[in-house]
Amino acid sequence: MSDFKQRRAEWGGRSFLALLWLLHWLPLPLLAAFGRALGEWVLWPLARSRRRIVLTNLRLCFPDMDDAARRRLGREHLGWLMRSMLERSLLLYASPARLARLIQVEGDLTQFTQHPDTSAMWMLPHFVALDFIAPPLTFGQQRSMVSIYQTQRNPVMDDALRRVRLRLGSDTLLVDRSQGVRPVVRAIHKGAVFINASDMDFGPQDSAFVPFFGVAANTLLSPARLAASLKLRVQILVVEMLPRGRGYRLHVHEMPPGFDDPDPVRATAAWHQWLEARIREMPAQYYWVHRRFKTRPEGEARFY
């Protein structure tokens, strides 16, 4: 990236953060309505490349849905997505007390957070409000955590995203994806809980093609391998954005049946089956703008 483009990107990042600082003062229902309208009526018609990705994913995952229904779902998805982007202003700037009022927890997090002798992993599927797991995990943090982090190209936004992940809990290690899993394993051996968001296409390394909604999806096998080799207890955390700005609900689920299979491909297939069921419960809130099926088996045509 040239110096000019770098400066322009950094200026844009700072301007966006200034906007988020202003927006975080709004009541959440008003902020939610603004974000939804922006996503459905501005982003949907203008962001053509993102719209194509969303519609391609929906066509592959919901082949029985007609085109009009998929377009309605895609438009709704971009409304939730824009909401999540603007409501990250709360994670950056709102007080801990305000965040505590807005986030409900259904399930028991304490069996991991308060028991350092338990080797554990939290799996975080990519629903649009994923980052809102940070406050419940770090309020009164009693043990360390480790997470794999994808460095952002814009340094201003990279710093902001790191602050979102670390703001309320200082004892969290972010491992850059380029470092591999060895730092993660060392941290787990020292008592850290592994926070893992792996339901994306990260390329062919340590991956296999595992069915996802009936389509071969390039998927990391390391979560299943780590869970088996380190005998990790597993919980899955799903964050739901509530309608009309009523807040957020963190659902704590136990390990899905079959994820303890010693074969990592079968274990990952069980994880996908479980995830598909959760996505069908709130399909508009899954992260459909990601090219989930970008990597294809040899000789197969590309989808995007």
Largest sheet: 7 strands, mixed
Domain count: the total is 1
Number of strands: 9
Beta-strand share of residues = 15-25%
Low-confidence spans: none
| Rough outline | globular
Largest sheet strand order: 1-9-8-2-5-3-4
Mean pLDDT across residues: 92
The helix tally amounts to 11
Describe it for me?
This protein has 304 residues and is of the alpha/beta class. The chain is 47% helix and 16% strand. The chain contains 11 helices and 9 strands. The mean pLDDT is 92. Keywords: Acyltransferase, Cell inner membrane, Cell membrane, Membrane, Transferase. One of its GO terms (molecular function) is acyltransferase activity. It holds the Pfam family Lip_A_acyltrans.
What descriptors fit this protein?
11 helices; 9 strands; Lipid A biosynthesis acyltransferase; cell inner membrane; membrane; transferase; acyltransferase
Structure described in brief:
This protein has 304 residues and is of the alpha/beta class. The protein is built from eleven helices and nine strands.
Ordered list of secondary-structure elements with their pairings:
Elements lengths: L2 H21 L4 H19 L1 H14 L5 H27 L2 H7 E4 L3 H4 L6 E4 L10 H5 L6 E5 L5 H12 L5 E5 L5 H8 L3 E4 L10 E6 L2 E6 L1 H8 L3 E9 L6 E7 L9 H18 L23
Helix pairs in contact: 1-4, 1-8, 2-4, 3-4, 10-11
